[in-house]
Amino acid sequence: xxxxxxxxxxxxxxxxxxxxxxxxxxxxxxxxxxxxxxxxxxxxxxxxxxxxxxxxxxxxxxxxxxxxxxxxxxxxxxxxxxxxxxxxxxxxxxxxxxxxxxxxxxxxxxxxxxxxxxxxxxxxxxxxxxxxxxxxxxxxxxxxxxxxxxxxxxxxxxxxxxxxxxxxxxxxxxxxxxxxxxxxxxxxxxxxxxxxxxxxxxxxxxxxxxxxxxxxxxxxxxxxxxxxxxxxxxxxxxxxxxxxxxxxxxxxxxxxxxxxxxxxxxxxxxxxxxxxxxxxxxxxxxxxxxxxxxxxxxxxxxxxxxxxxxxxxxxxxxxxxxxxxxxxxxxxxxxxxxxxxxxxxxxxxxxxxxxxxxxxxxxxxx
Length: 366
Ligand SMILES: *Cc1c(COP(=O)(O)O)cnc(C)c1O
Hints:
By secondary structure, this protein is an alpha/beta fold. It has 10 helices and 14 strands. The chain has helices spanning 20-29, 48-65, 79-91, 105-115, 214-218, 232-237, 247-262, 265-287, 311-323, 348-365; strands at 9-10, 71-76, 97-102, 119-125, 149-152, 154-155, 160-161, 173-176, 193-197, 208-213, 291-292, 303-307, 326-327, 338-341. Strands 2-10-9-8-5-3-4 form a 7-stranded mixed sheet, sandwiched between helices. Strands 11-12-14 form a 3-stranded antiparallel sheet. Strands 1-13 form a two-stranded parallel sheet. Helix 2 (48-65) packs across helix 7 (247-262). The two termini are 38 Å apart. 45% of the residues are buried. Bound molecules: pyridoxal-5'-phosphate. Pyridoxal-5'-phosphate (PLP) is lined by residues 14, 79-81, 106, 152, 156, 176, 178-179, 197, 200.
């Protein structure tokens, strides 16, 4: 069996690497939670212990991101993909329209689901350049009567990231932060709703973190046919316990939040993430052998996408990297090339190892 020391450097886009101290704590307590005598996997979600886990995780999220008191923190099932439907079902009047900023594959999917509910207007799209950039504020065609504006702060597949929060006036702002949640400071108050599937940056798969403003919740579309489980208000009234929540995923997310707080919170992790990304992009830019997919001013700190001179070399790179313990570097087919996902928990020495591998590969194959 593999031991902790035999772990590869995991560059996968998601599910992705988790902090080692989190895995070790979960492993230590897996069979019998101290003071409880049973596994977190076995206990009632209505019991005192799990209730404590849920409350502490929420409290730590509030502390970490400075979530204002008039926002709810929810732990929901269905992945970020279900949020593509829940957002319009709850907030898009059936005769209304919402604005979507399209910066890659994930925002395209969000648009597809919203169109099933009502009108969608594309505020901007970077499709013509295969999503290698983020539109500037001045390019956004915003409708002052839109039900909301939706954007994706980081496009996981293409590797572009917003460096600003779109200014939308009085129109509510919704953000899919699945792949960069808690990777840098976040101004919650600028948003009406933020969601993130946990499995990229803040935990395992199975739970989605939703942060939603109370005032906006009250303005939900009153649709009596909306299934109960798709209704944010029901989840909020029942503190994410309308039905059995994804207990284990929430527990692990709670450990990840404690880990983030222990390393200096969002400013702390942001400094580390900037250092890791700068090191990797510097290598990409060093000779021109490697070519970054995204434009420099919108490069993602989380998903670093780059090409090699040919597809043959890309296949060779991925294969040899894997053999060298650098796993999961093959890019998504829509971009091609390589993608190094270097989320919060990805270690700095893994980036150093990749940079060294890139230099050696270029020497041998340049
Ligand atoms: C992965 C991802 C999703 C989809 O998440 P699921 O939990 O698999 O539904 C949505 N948006 C972004 C930005 C993602 O990276």
